[in-house]
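Dissemination and training. As part of the outreach component of the grant, students in the summer workshop were shown how a complex can be specified as a set of sequence lines and then modelled as a single object. The example used during the hands-on session is reproduced here so that future cohorts can follow it. Participants entered these lines:
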Amino acid sequence: MSRSLVISSFLHLLFIVITALSLPFLAKKPIELPPIVSIELIQITDKTNIPFAPKAKKTIEKIKEEEKKLVSEQAPPKKVKKIKPDSVPMPDDKVKKIEKIKEDKQNPEKIDNEVKQVSEFEKDELFDPNNIAALIDKSKEESGDTTNKTDKITQDQQKNIENAGLTLSEEDALKAQIFGCWSIPLGLPYNENLLVRIKLRLNSDGTVLQSEILDHARMNKPGQGFYKVLAESALRAVKLCQPLRVPTTGYERWKELQLNFDAREMLEG
Amino acid sequence: MKKSIILFFLILSPIKALALIEVDITRGNLDPLPIAVSPLSIDETSKKGFEKILNKKNIGSEISKVVENNLKTSGLFNPLNKDAFLQAPDIANLKPRFEDWSLIKAQALITGKVNLVDEKLRVEFRLWDVLAGREMMALAFTTVPSNWRRVGHIITDKVYERLTGEKGYFDTRIIYVAEEGPKTRRVKKLAIMDQDGANNKFLTLGNELVLTPRFNPTSQMVTYLSYFRNLPRVYLLDIETGMQEVVGDFPGMTFAPRFSPDGKKIIMSFAKDGNSDIYTMDLENRIVEKITNHPSIDTSPSYSPDGKYICFNSDRSGYQQIYIMKSDGTKVKRISFGKGLYGTPVWSPRGDLIAFTKLHKGKFYIGVMRTDGSGERLLTENFYQEAPSWSPNGRVLIFYRETETNDKGEGFSAKLWSIDLTGYNERLVSTPTDASDPSWSSLLSN
Amino acid sequence: MKKFSYRNIDQGAIMKLYKILKNAFLISLACLVLSACATSKKTGQMQGDVYTGKETVEYLASGVPDRVFFATNESVLTTASRETLRKQAAWLRKNSKITVVLEGHADERGTREYNLALGERRANAAKDYLMTYGISSDRISVLSYGKERPVDSGSNPLAWSKNRRSVTVKAN
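and obtained this result:
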């Protein structure tokens, strides 16, 4: 009777200690959460134990001797492992093996934790960098207050448009400028369609009011991950080049401009 | 008639007025992308903790050095000089002042933070688009402190993938043959190192000649040729346990081994009575299959990534040329028809290209061709070089190069080199000793 | 008139032919002198590109050379090689307890794996020839080193010719 009492009190005490230790820990954790928006936790496995040469050498000797004992003319299918379990090389290795098994057991739990953590973060997400729709909305938002004004002007002056398109020299100037700004991502697959069309609304001084990727639906398609990279590089080029080298006259002609970025020629050559 | 013409213009004119001006941008610069790698910030207690464990003064900046070096060697990025950075690492990680970073011409920025949490290394990092002024990616890792270099490699892989659209190749290893001694009696050992040359380790002692190690798809096993007891045979080595065994029971030399893409078979050459043919052996049931049957030298086999085809070189035409066949040995087709000899074909992990060594007019070339033999491109020319091995993303090749000796036979060296598919970014991969026969592992993480 | 003109043409042709022959003679003479210089320096120990010198050769017994040499990318035995192998066969018949390893080698101007196969092919060519002279295949084993064990570390045609070889080594 007294014995069971002792055991029970001991277990109770243990329980209390554990909760006392873990409770503050649990309570603190949410506060310590890093102020990151979207984060993905990745566990890196600890497997880096590469054996040193002497060990390998001993193993090869042992295996060779084992083999010698096994006088076999024709490869029997049973000879999958030529080493007896007790002749496993070094005492060190045994320990490591046990550790490894332990790890393996822990692994499923670890993964569970990861998943939970990731999903927790996802709830807090304000902006998902992978969501392209958001990206495009943003770039649309970028169009400032000035748009309304320019719209009025356009309607008034529409009659004056005689000659759509840029002259050859005007186009060349613009092209030359953007060529210099566009860092083509070198890792793109050269055997894919590498055309990105970007529609711009410009101010008269050549600064960009608004930029829009025309085929943005393609970005979310599977296997087209590179397209996003390409589109981003084109947007960067436009940003880097501001103000664009536009003609000094005829704003109405080029206030809207479409740039067709095509990396194919560069990457194939 | 007149009416219709007028009508035509009437229809046309509004279109003309509304028509958007299109400008085709078909050229850009292929200069590496300017990127700023801000040292990862670290608090004082963590700093001291890591100094104790790893004997490194500032693990945050050490990790960022790994990232910086990786990005630079890729040839696709230009990491900017840290002296020009205006913002402190810890503040930059919270909210970068993009104007400051664009001032030094950075287009992308990497920031981050390192902590010691429960004896573990916790690293978070963010990638920023400087010109758009927004975050592109944020990730955190936890691992044992000794894995700190791998953290740097994994960060590089993530950044590389986010900015180029294809998988990286930095958290990988290279297995190769370390060489020492005079050319006539070289001592060769198996060695393994990280992709950037760090953590070099020897796996054999050099008592017997070893050649052509190759990883299995999970990079846990290596198959290679060993002259143990003067019997050149294909061996299998488990990198984790150090256990080695002979592959099969062949009454003669087996060589040129490689794993099948599923890792279940080894494909190799077996030489008998002066004739070398290609065989496979199933590692589970030990069944041996003869794949080629021709009185010529058939060797250097390599599977396509889907396992359906095999490329190899054969001198059945009289000279060494590249052939492909189905994995059962049927439908053999020669694909190399250029001038010179072709050898060591290796199928790209992407499946679209075959890398090879070419010998023409006394020069050796590393090149690639499509799997039907078209579109041959020679990437590099030298006195002697061979044995290309693909990076796991199929963008970079690693191979070895031997120097020409002088009249007295001196000055021999063998080194590893890498080159990417553009053919421009050629680099020496530094090794503690001379080196040959490199084989690139798959990505160690994910 | 006609005859004369024919003759004239004939004479002209002969003159031309003479000139051509003279030139050709001079050129070939020059070539001979030049090539003589060249061969005496470099290829004096080579016939075609097969090594014929004695520099690296060792002897199994007096008058029994231990190695034979091959042309680039070839495993065909030359007349000299066959003579060497016949001497080896005679020596092996006399010493019936000796077993040998035939070590096949290639020069460094090929890919490693192909060269392993080529070395094996060369050693086997030698083995086959010894067998036709009555040496049992039990007494001969074959080992290819490919380009791994050159005797001459030079990077020139003469060094390479010395390395393209099959060496008979006593195994017991």
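Chain B has six helices and 31 strands. Students were then asked to discuss how this feature might be tested experimentally.
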